[in-house]
Amino acid sequence: MDSYLGTTTWNVNSSLVVNTASIEAVIAGSSFDGTLNISGGILPRLTINLTDPAEAWTMAGEMNLSGLTPFFETRLAGSAMLMTGELNVTGGRVRIDSDVTFLGSGATPAQVSIGPTSAALRMQGNTILESDVEFSGNGSFVNAASGQMMFHDGVTLDNVGFENHGDFEIGETIGLASVDRFTNTGSWTIDIGGYLAGAEHDLLLVAGATELGGFLNVNITDDPTLNFSPNIGDEFTFLLSGGNISGTFLNDPTSIAGNNLYHWSVLYNPHDVRLQLSDISSVPEPTCGLMLLGFCMLAVYQRRAETALSISSK
């Protein structure tokens, strides 16, 4: 697709579907080093379907996306993509339906630019963002309701805001990340393995305003190197916001670790949010739940029998 020298430019202004074993002559390569421009109205999109569903193609060149309508317009779909080049959202609201890993390792990490404040890039699938990926612009990076997104430890979006409407977590175990502004309506999982914020439990730094909603999950890590068990009354700051914090989560989370249930309270302050361990209880034995279910079913059966006997006697 990108010629021998990798200098080809594709201008996609309608729907283009490519079904292939590889986008290069050498199947082991499958890397695009040229320029892809995908823009216009609702119709323009590139769908690359590799024969092997487990394979991914690499975007090593420059991809420029833009939208014209108030809606999120799909610009890329199909097989998973590894992003090592430049991804530029020059304007509008666009979406990528494919699973994407933004690679930060190597000599040249991926670069993501999300243009003006009104611009937005929404990820619909599974997205992994490695720590050395370079962000620029003032727009928004969005995890869709259908999306699953992981920020590696050390990720920073610079002046780009982040919206989570799907499943989100920082780090494969523990992580620290920073964004310009933050909105949550989805499910956010916090990992806790100690008292040191960012090193032993997750921490998100927000430069501007924060809007909270959705659900909060708490996972007590089973990392043997940390070997951590929190005590009642312990507090963990997992969100620091330079701007005001508005809204609340829809739940006070509960964690299961070993044979214990950990009950958390969420404490809201003007510029930070904390978790406080309010209680620890034992995980109910499965037999107790079955016995309770049996008693409930017996009570319902007896009640129905009494009702039927009463009706028949009238």
Which oligomeric state applies?
Answer: single chain
Number of strands: 31
Give the radius of gyration: 25 Å
How far from one another are the termini?
A: 84 Å
Strand order of the largest sheet: 2-5-8-11-14-17-19-22-25-28
Helices, by number, come to: 1
C-alpha geometry: elongated
How would a crystallographer describe the biggest sheet? 10 strands, parallel
Strand content: over 45%
| Overall average pLDDT | 90
Helix content estimate? under 10%
The SS-based structural class is: mainly beta
Q: What ranges have pLDDT less than 50 throughout 5 or more consecutive residues?
A: 298-314
Structure notes:
With 314 residues, the protein is mostly beta strands. 9% of the residues lie in helices and 46% in strands. It is built from one helix and 31 strands. Strands 2-5-8-11-14-17-19-22-25-28 form a ten-stranded parallel beta sheet, with no helix packed on it. A nine-stranded parallel beta sheet has the order 3-6-9-12-15-18-20-23-26, with no helix packed on it. It has a six-stranded parallel beta sheet with strand order 1-4-7-10-13-16, with no helix packed on it. A hairpin with a 3-residue loop joins strand 30 (260-268) and strand 31.
How is this fold's topology laid out?
Elements: E1 9-12, E2 15-20, E3 31-32, E4 35-38, E5 45-50, E6 56-59, E7 62-66, E8 73-78, E9 80-83, E10 86-91, E11 93-96, E12 100-102, E13 111-114, E14 120-123, E15 126-129, E16 134-137, E17 140-143, E18 148-151, E19 161-164, E20 167-170, E21 176-179, E22 182-184, E23 187-192, E24 203-206, E25 210-212, E26 215-220, E27 235-241, E28 245-247, E29 254-257, E30 260-268, E31 272-282, H1 286-312
Parallel strand pairs: 1-4, 2-5, 3-6, 4-7, 5-8, 6-9, 7-10, 8-11, 9-12, 10-13, 11-14, 12-15, 13-16, 14-17, 15-18, 17-19, 18-20, 19-22, 20-23, 21-24, 22-25, 23-26, 24-27, 25-28
Antiparallel strand pairs: 27-31, 29-30, 30-31
